[in-house]
Design brief:
Blueprint: E1 2-6, E2 9-16, E3 24-30, H1 38-48, E4 53-57, H2 66-69, H3 78-94, H4 97-112, E5 117-126, H5 128-139, E6 144-150, E7 173-179, H6 187-199, E8 203-209, H7 226-243
Parallel strand pairs: 3-4, 3-5, 5-6, 6-7, 7-8
Antiparallel strand pairs: 1-2, 2-4
Helix pairs in contact: 4-5
Amino acid sequence: MIELAASDGPVETWLSRPDTEEALPGVLFFMDAIGLRQRIYEMADRIASWGYVVMAPNVFYREGAASELAPREPLRNPEARAAFFADAGPRIARLTSDLALADIDAYVHALSSRHGVTTPIGVVGYCMGARLAVRAAGAHADIVHACGGFHGGELATDDADSPHLALATACGEFVFGHADEDPGMSPDAVRRLGEALSAAGLTASNEIYPGTRHGYTMADTAVYDDAGTERHFEALRDLFARTLG
């Protein structure tokens, strides 16, 4: 665990990289709404093992330390999940797009300027983190050349600051793996996202993973799906190999 400086204070950040002195491309990992915890460390470590320097910041740093915000137990039953999100829901709402963009500037700078990190970099996000990944790609098209978003929610809405609008200023390649019948990402929203990707002239995969539920990559929850998780890792690994080298 390292500490980064962001617009409103220090940010706990999980750093993972292979045991090598070779300079490697960077990947910025945006966590899901459950927070920075063991499952996020495991996923970041796996991505790093492919040959990347991965940084996963506690995007809720304004709300408290990661250990204070994370669940006390795995969210493997509906009651525990509902109780946790009664507190987590307002945290998500308080991370406005303006605050998020200021933080993203700090995260991208910290990763791209770190010793032993080459550019361009990639970004990946899960759940609400997918929205942050898309915003990062749009705000930093000069340096973010790959973006993955998995079981994301509210990526294409009627809001004036909807994440999909950031695609107009993005470049590089995108891969999206949506959960099946996700209440936060309807088939119409998936279609709308696809239209925005096409309008921006971006190379992209925008797929629904059959049989998965929102949060399918998170092994510490009841919605975990092994097949969907492995499919997402394969798609992400191929994306980064094509774009980051």
